[in-house]
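#structure-requests
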Amino acid sequence: MTNKLLKIAIAAGGDSSENEISLKSAENILAHLDASLYDARIVEISRKGWFVRDIDGNAYPVNRHDFTWKPNGQVKNFDAVINSIHGTPGENGILPAYFELIGLPFTGCRSFSSSLTFSKFYCNQFLMQRGIRVSPSILLRKEQETDINSVMNQLGLPFFVKPNNGGSSCGTSRVDEPDEILPALLKAFGEDREVIIEKLLVGTEVTCGLFKTQTRKEVFPVTEIISKKEFFDYEAKYTPGMSDEITPARIPAETARSVQDLSSRIYDLLDCRGVVRMDYILVGDVPWFLEVNTVPGMSKHSIIPKQASITGLSLNELFGILLEDAMTR
């Protein structure tokens, strides 16, 4: 008698500039899942539609009432979902809320945590009130007037201009001179109606992935990031050779432990679930929090698969742990 395969949907795509990266993450996850355990399929989700593709490339629409699909007239369901959508609607809480509503288990953070962490400004304000060091920042909205002189007086130059709700550094600029401010704002507002202006922190960029389940906690080794661009932008993140990602980071062991301990604390403060990645700037040996990625990249070039591999975890094992946790909560 053969064991029944778990039917797994890998949600991918989305409506942000990270759509292509999300699809690459999903393809890499699919390639590494054990076919003897999982009947996994990529489900492409965007405003254009929700579709399941079969091995021949045929697209079948998803019934949004219950997340089923109907190949050859036969209704098929999923047992659980791996959420690999970066940006909206996967990372900002919309899709997690949908899965919560229909009662379908999924990996990753719940809807409230996803919504909170996706807003860089409000996440930072929440953590700052709990003693976490974050860079001073200002939130701007597209429909409101912006007083550039007031921004410069509060933060000084240089600073970063970023879409408040976004990832992969899409729409992000470093501003060193006053005449760079307006182009940077226009670029950021092209991605989001909210923009965060954040004082530049000078130091070493590091990142730390981790997950916690009901039975296991794993904090990965810290990775040091050295961008060959002005900062760790989209090109540096996803173009081979444009950055060096060194794991474990070339920092004192005590500093690495402090980053790992802080990541574990922030994970709990934000009520995270599944695997996430925390980004920091080390100012001296002191970590300053930048942001949390609740749906971190899983492509072959991404940081989390490399960190997991160093700890002896394959992607198949990692998602096996996360799926079991999602389905038994």
